[in-house]
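Q: Got a minute? One more chain.
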Amino acid sequence: MAKHSPKNAPAAQEALLRLQEVGTRLQQQFLAKEEIIRLLLIAVLAGEHLLLIGPPGTAKSALVRTLARLLDARYFEYLLT
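A: Always. Here it is, folded:
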């Protein structure tokens, strides 16, 4: 008996491939940030927010701005001082 795949399987596969491509591009641009990039992509996939906290100059904002640009998504940030 053959299994039937959902009708939206091609769209889901396409979205997954797009996220993988975005992850690869981010890793090429931001060296040694693999874990943060993985968490960003998980948050995107889950439709959840992600809060990045760290010292100044560690590419937090640049990473999120680039991710938003690659996904053609809205972007905002809060500066907590």
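A: The chain has a mean pLDDT of 88.
Q: Perfect, thanks.
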